[in-house]
Amino acid sequence: MEARCQCGSVSFKTPLPEPLALYICHCAECRRQTSSVLGTSAIFPRFKLPESDLLSCYAYFCRNCGTRIFHTTPAKNVVSVKGGCIEGIDWKKAIHLWTKSAMIPIPEGSETRAGASGRSTDYGTSQELLDHAVDTPNSSGGVMGSGGC
């Protein structure tokens, strides 16, 4: 899948053609991060991103436009690519989290959780996927990190 920031300076292909999981989160933290009523995340195996070896922080943004690209936790083997950066995702299969604090109606028939996902976060990814270098032909702007998620 193709992913990019708002200005196009950072772009990359995800290591898999589909995410391991999709989440639409209605918690207050995601609302504040996105300045919206929800946050969207597509979970992929951890992969090497442009200039990521220079960063030690958890949340990564485009240096030019400030778009939040992804966040990661060192103890986990996955990254959460921000959903709005990825082209062509079918959000109908997403799990809605923290629905008890939702500010908009949840689509009927959606899988929901009143709180956190309750799902294991190792997703069974192999070391081969974790070491996979991502094709980043158009990443001229680079990414920068920020503490916290």
From TrEMBL:
Sorted keywords for this record are:
Lyase, Metal-binding, Zinc
Q: Does the keyword Mitochondrion apply?
A: no
Could you tell me what this protein is called?
Answer: Glutathione-dependent formaldehyde-activating
Q: Which residues form the CENP-V/GFA domain?
A: 1-92
Single GO term (MF): carbon-sulfur lyase activity
Q: Into which family does the record put it?
A: Belongs to the Gfa family.
Origin organism is: Purpureocillium lavendulum
Please tell me whether the keyword Zinc is annotated for this protein.
Answer: yes
Specify one Pfam family. Answer: GFA
Gene3D superfamilies named in the record:
glutathione-dependent formaldehyde- activating enzyme (gfa)
- PROSITE patterns xrefs: CENP_V_GFA
